[in-house]
Automatic annotation (TrEMBL):
CdaR GGDEF-like domain ranges (all copies): 153-284
InterPro entries associated with the record: CdaR-like_regulators, CdaR_GGDEF, PucR_C-HTH_dom, PucR_C-HTH_sf, PucR_dom
Domain PucR C-terminal helix-turn-helix: 338-395
Protein name per the record: Sugar diacid utilization regulator
Annotated organism of origin: Pseudomonas rhodesiae
Family: Belongs to the CdaR family.
């Protein structure tokens, strides 16, 4: 659980703090208060700070305040607090207020009569309390998702005490952001790290809007959240909501890509560990099967449910080796051609013309490859049982890619 700008404004003793602009950023999490003493802040903040601006050590005219606002947006601080009074900064210029409103950056006015020591003490104490509460709530949820508890009733009672009612029916959602390697290969590591942090924070903020009472578990580009889903209708609404968000989001994220897996609906707290496992299986399918457009629900897995239930991975690997081993060895030596061809043929239900178009090759080339595939594997694509074996082997291959 994080302390937000809105929470800071509501703290006892800080009633004289006034939000002047940037109301859309009130949900920005506050990592720590920072008092700006230099002309700029870009090299002194890491993101998430609530920056207090005085005119004691440096004159703050309109141009400097606009500069600070621009740097605050670039470094993704939580908000700016400008101290005003008769001696240093008499008032916040209208252009600064307009710029803050346009940027969605919370701009707060603090009278000099409110002592900074009281402000920083109040925020520091609130941050510690928020961190302790957040850890407790995360611990409860992690235990439920792992099935790591002796008494479910005691754990649910603890959750209710922490303001986290979990007595309903839920759908577990797993998200994973991939592609950071491509970013690091293209640019400066520090800039890429800042870019990724911004992406992670933006995704986290959106997820918190969907789950205001239950914390989001997440680290290093992976998130887990619970969505209310008492029945299949609610689960479908959750799926549609996530799909509508995901498609345009991935266009903006490129070369990063976000994948989402959802469990089945109507899991009570006692079955959240099972729901978590379902969401993980769905996430694996979303990542490995492009036709799912980055999102998959456990109920959509079909035969993949059976494959996921095989705990001895060696059995699946052996099946893949027996059915498609010659193709895998061929592509390893000569470059990928036969496995993608077989996959395209299956995806197009044996339509040679459609498969050739999918692969951007001539139909004669595709026909030659199909003949080569049958010769190497000793299987016949016209045989229903051979097609079944090959289809299952292809799924195993995709899941292990």
């Amino acid at each position: 659980m994080s302390l937000t700008v809105a929470d800071v404004l509501a703290l006892p003793g800080l009633e004289s703090l006034t939000l002047r602009a940037g109301q859309t950023g009130l949900d920005n999490p506050v990592r720590w208060p920072y008092v700006a003493e230099n002309s700029g802040i870009a090299e002194w903040v890491l993101g998430g700070e609530l920056v207090f601006v005085t005119g004691i050590n440096h004159p703050r005219d309109e141009a400097n305040l606009l500069q600070l606002l621009e740097e605050a947006c670039q470094r993704q601080v939580a908000g700016l607090v400008v101290l005003t009074g008769p001696t240093y900064i008499q008032a916040i210029p209208p252009r600064v207020l307009e710029a803050a409103a346009a940027a969605g950056m919370p701009l707060i006015e603090q009278p000099y009569s409110l002592k900074m020591v009281l402000v920083t003490q109040a925020i520091g104490s609130a941050l510690i309390q928020s961190e302790q509460l957040g850890r407790s709530r995360h611990d409860v949820l992690e235990r439920l998702l792992a099935g790591d508890y002796q008494s479910l009733d005691i754990l649910l009672h603890r959750a209710a005490q922490l303001g986290m009612p979990l007595t309903g029916h839920w759908q577990v959602v797993q998200l994973q952001l991939e592609g950071s390697e491509a970013l690091f290969a293209q640019g400066d590591a520090a800039q890429v790290e800042a870019h990724l942090t911004g992406r992670h924070d933006a995704i986290g903020r959106r997820l918190r809007q969907w789950s205001p009472t239950v914390p989001i578990l997440g680290r290093a580009g992976q998130w887990t959240l619970l969505l209310p889903a008492p029945d299949a209708v609610a689960a479908l609404a959750n799926r549609n909501q996530l799909a509508q968000w995901l498609s345009p989001l991935n266009l903006r994220l490129a070369p990063l890509k976000l994948f989402i897996g959802l469990s089945a609906a109507a899991h009570p707290a006692a079955r959240l560990a099972q729901a978590q496992d379902e969401a993980r299986q769905a996430l694996a399918a979303a990542r490995r099967f492009r036709e799912r457009a980055g999102l998959c629900v456990y109920d959509e897995l079909g035969v993949l449910k059976l494959l996921s239930g095989v705990r001895d991975r060696a059995l699946l690997d052996q099946f893949l080796k027996e059915r498609l081993g010659p193709l895998l060895r061929h592509d390893l030596q000569h470059g990928p051609s036969l496995m993608p061809t077989l996959e395209a043929w299956f995806h197009e239900n044996g339509n040679l013309m459609a498969a050739a178009q999918r692969l951007a090759v001539h139909r004669n080339t595709l026909t030659h490859r199909i003949q080569r595939i049958e010769a190497l594997c000793g299987l016949t694509l016209d045989n229903a049982y051979d097609r079944l074996d090959i289809g299952i082997a292809l799924m195993i291959w995709r899941l292990s890619a």
